[in-house]
Amino acid sequence: MSFPFISAEEAAAHINNGDNVALSGFTASGTPKLVTIALAERAKQFHEKGEPFKINLYTGASTNDFVDGALSRAKAIDKRSPYQGTPDARKAVNNGEISYFDPHLSTWSQDLRYGFCGDIDVAIIEVTEMNPSGEVILGAGIGMSPTIAKLAKKVIIEYSSYYRTSFRGFHDNYIPLDPPHRREIPVYKPSDRIGTTVLKIDPKKIIGVVPSNESESISSFTQISETTAAIGHNAAAFLANEMKIGRIPHEFLPIQSGVGNVANAALHGLAENPDIPRFQMYTEVVQDAVMDLMENGKCNFASTCALAFSDDAMLHFMDNINFFRDKLLMRPFEISNHPEVVRRIGLIAMNTALECDIFGNVNSTHVNGSYMMNGIGGSGDFARNGYLSIFLCPSIQKGGALSAIVPMVTHIDHSEHSVKVIVTEQGVADLRNKDPYQRARCIIENCVHPDYKELLWDYLKLTKTGHIPLNLRAAFALHDTFAQCGDMRLTDFSKYV
User: Fold this and answer.
1) DSSP β-ladder status, 396-397 and 402-403
2) C-alpha span between 116 and 468 (Å, rounded)
3) Do domains 8-212 and 226-494 have the same CATH topology?
4) Which residues are registered as beta bridge partners of 80?
5) Catalytic site residue 284?
6) Options 284, 334, 416, 425, the catalytic residue
7) Domain boundary assignment for the chain
8) Least enclosed by CB within 10 Å: which of 61, 73, 200, 430?
9) Fold of the 8-212 domain
10) What span, in angstroms and rounded, lies between the C-alpha atoms of 16 and 21?
């Protein structure tokens, strides 16, 4: 069966108001780029005529301006899940223009198969190779592609020629059986293959192929700062000591790392520490730092959901692809984040926080408890089930006017029950086997910036009873002071008690 080549506009014409639309990829990697731009224009045309046009958009994770940016500006999204990462989408979510739900990524594919979000009307899937029988080779990210290819009533293919070398062999497409028929996920080490290198799509569903030559448009990371370098150094030193005293085996344990500059710096910290041996990664995304780790011999294998390389790094990857062929494997996030596998292999999970409180609760998603940044992503999957759940953040932001360590976080994504270690540029707080008072003292002593230590010691003295020394009137005094005066350091607890 041959598939017609169609324009992005012709493809978008198959998507109607109210449709549930699902996309391939994970982060910007492997996401469609042209059809969503055309879909935004289609929405604008409807709106100009006074007619409604909005879709429900379901993705692997964050996307890019081709998707979330364009569709948000066109007011073309009604519901959105599970993760968004563009300023326009963020603004629309926080203004109530987009209905946004933020699930754990490890359960998201199963939720779709259970029908919690209704039928998938259209799937848009980026591929790098395909044949007339509907067998395709995906691009730089899998996300939930196997599930949406199975569920969708119609499939639009974006055929990318940007990847100038074959991605064949890098993917491990797999869908587990759903309960009560599920068996074990047979991944016992990061390099284990359990699925297929090609993804089979029912040819009868494919309505056309849209040629594309767009890059992922991922920017390079900023230079590692003194602060982020110190965070990375502290995390690496902690892990090296854990191995020295026997709580991590000498062959080490697989690493999971979140996204962003802090996570990137943490990986560089591992690379620079001579006491950290070669290791493997089992994670949902690999960034530029992982490529460096592989080329210098520090990381010998990485299982991931996506290659979230900057455009420059992606070009380097493609130029040297044969070097990486036996060192990288991409899986659906249903497997890359699966709690069963995470717990089995003893994962060291390193993720970033917006803020932490002195009792070990972590806020990863909401500014001042209300304003969504991006989403929880897979951090909950890893933090709850990892052997070590480590959260990283600078101790201060905005030139010192804001402390990342507070009496109480304004939103809890990861509770004290899941958070084992907090790392800032100031030091490391090991929270294992500690009660709330002990955790508070440990965090204040080791992780808080000197400008805020006295304030937080003062807060801890306000309540003398109870299992958790919580003072309801003063718990958000630092946040309130920042809102009123623009500087948490001006907090006066006498105004709150």
Assistant:
1) antiparallel
2) 37
3) yes
4) 57, 100
5) yes
6) 284
7) 8-212, 226-494
8) 200
9) Glutaconate Coenzyme A-transferase (3.40.1080)
10) 10
